[in-house]
Write a structure and sequence with these properties.
30% strand; 33% helix; Alpha-Beta Plaits; four-stranded antiparallel sheet; single chain; 99 residues; 3 helices; alpha+beta
Length: 99
């Protein structure tokens, strides 16, 4: 069953992305994942919570693969880099089975 990592990001500084983005993209691919959404314009249709500065949606083949990506020791330094420069609400959720 597919799984999705969904992140709502508020950043105080974006310079960290030049190091974070290529390393993280390679690790996502290593674990069978892919970006579905990464940034882009956000249009709020409902609700009072202000939209994030950026939204990211990753797709993995399974919840286990998504968890393996997040727990990868190579990703640890990238998590620390991101956390020093931003706030992130990050969730993993199982999708609908294919077919």
């Amino acid at each position: 069953m597919p799984a999705y990592a969904i992140g709502r990001l508020k950043a105080s500084d974006w310079s960290w992305l030049r190091d974070y983005r290529p390393t993280t993209a390679a690790l996502i691919e290593k674990h069978g994942g892919r970006y579905l959404v990464s940034g882009g314009e956000i249009v709020q249709l409902e609700g009072d919570t202000p939209p994030p500065d950026a939204l990211v949606v990753l797709e993995f083949e399974s919840l286990e693969q998504a968890q393996a990506w997040y727990a990868d020791p190579e990703y640890g330094p990238m998590i620390e880099l991101r956390q020093r420069n931003s706030e992130l609400d990050f969730l993993l959720v199982e999708g609908i089975p294919p077919g």
